[in-house]
Design goal:
Blueprint (H helix, E strand, L loop, with lengths): L7 E7 L7 H11 L4 E7 L5 H6 L8 E4 L4 H7 L2 E2 L1 H6 L4 E4 L5 E4 L2 H12 L10 E4 L3 H13 L4 E4 L3 H11 L3 E3 L14 E4 L23 E4 L8 H8 L3 E3 L2 H7 L1 H8 L7 H9 L1
Parallel strand pairs: 1-2, 1-3, 4-6, 7-8, 7-10, 8-9, 10-11, 11-12
Antiparallel strand pairs: 3-5, 5-6
Helix pairs in contact: 1-11, 5-6, 5-9
The structure holds 2'-monophosphoadenosine-5'-diphosphate (ATR).
């Protein structure tokens, strides 16, 4: 691979970063659109994260993605935050603006909604309450984006109730917190079920949740994408619910960054999905 002196540069900053699929994802688009550019893994230790972010303009980078554990550090290191990053308290995308200043954005919620809309075209925000399981970083983006899109009620439930209550307080709006022990009752009348916990991932036990009370016209989606068909999605599918797998959120959250850095609005295709999953 060779680049001209004018190659546009971007990457993903994390520690560790070797597991990130973003270089494969952006690399596919760079090739597809014939762009003179590179997207590289940036393995940056936590103690160096702020300095590394501040160095992006001097190095000629157009920006980068930020992943674990730097998403909160990035919030403090950039010059300004867009409204979503401010609300999330976390940055996943940094853009070096024309004047060399740094803008922090958060596109995780956008990625979630775009993936949901693409995977379940029949789903409407107004069709009913959404049940969200888990209260970590992924949950925060999912809950905020669902409320912004007009979902009438988000029923949030987490093994550690306090974390769900804190998230609900911070996000505000129509979020009700349920009890972990009676989580199955929250499924009654729901139009959407989202798992944002790590349960069901390869190496982890399946999410313990009976779907008996869930209407069959509800959509079920999972943030886990290894495996693509989690035990939760398999059960939902077998009882006739529409399902949306977790890889779409990763693919769609990448679109705004790619457009900002490389100047092309990229498309999420089956070929891209296969390429990213093979890696
Ligand atoms: P992320 O930022 O990727 O969402 P996280 O902050 O580590 O990751 O959150 C992981 C989520 O999975 C949390 O909601 C966690 O519940 P707790 O807040 O109670 O820890 C949830 N989780 C992890 N292991 C779980 C388990 N065995 N049963 C139920 N929920 C679990």
């Amino acid at each position: 691979m060779s680049f001209s002196g004018k190659a546009r540069l971007a990457g993903v900053m994390g520690w560790p970063v070797g597991h990130s699929r973003s270089p494969r994802l952006h690399g596919f688009w760079l090739k597809q659109y014939g762009i003179d550019g590179a997207y590289v893994p940036l393995a940056v230790r936590p103690e160096h994260a702020a300095a590394a972010i501040r160095a992006l303009p001097a190095l000629g980078f157009h920006g980068c993605n930020v992943t674990v554990p730097h998403k909160e550090t990035a919030c403090r290191a950039v010059d300004r935050l867009d409204a979503t990053a401010k609300r999330m308290g976390a940055v996943n995308t940094i853009v070096v603006l024309e004047d060399g200043t740094l803008e922090g954005r958060n596109t995780d919620g956008f990625g979630f909604l775009e993936s949901l809309r693409a995977g379940a075209p029949g789903w409407r925000a107004g069709s009913g309450p959404a049940v969200v399981i888990g209260a970590g970083g992924a949950s925060r983006a999912v809950v905020a984006s669902l409320l912004d899109s007009g979902v009438p009620e988000v029923r949030l439930v987490n093994r550690t109730r306090e974390r769900a209550e804190e998230l609900a307080r911070e996000i505000g709006g129509a979020v009700t917190v349920g009890d972990w022990v009676s989580r199955e009752t929250l499924l009654e009348g729901a139009a959407l079920l989202v798992n944002t916990t790590s349960q069901g991932m390869t190496g982890e036990p399946p999410l313990e949740l009976s779907l008996r009370a869930l209407p069959v016209n509800a959509v079920v989606t999972d943030a886990v994408y290894v495996p693509l068909l989690t035990p939760l999605l398999a059960e939902a599918k077998s009882r006739g619910n529409a399902i949306v797998d977790g890889i779409g959120m990763l693919l769609h959250q990448a679109r705004p960054g790619f457009q900002a850095w490389f100047g092309v609005e990229p498309e999420v295709t089956e070929e891209l999905k296969r390429h990213v999953l093979e890696g």
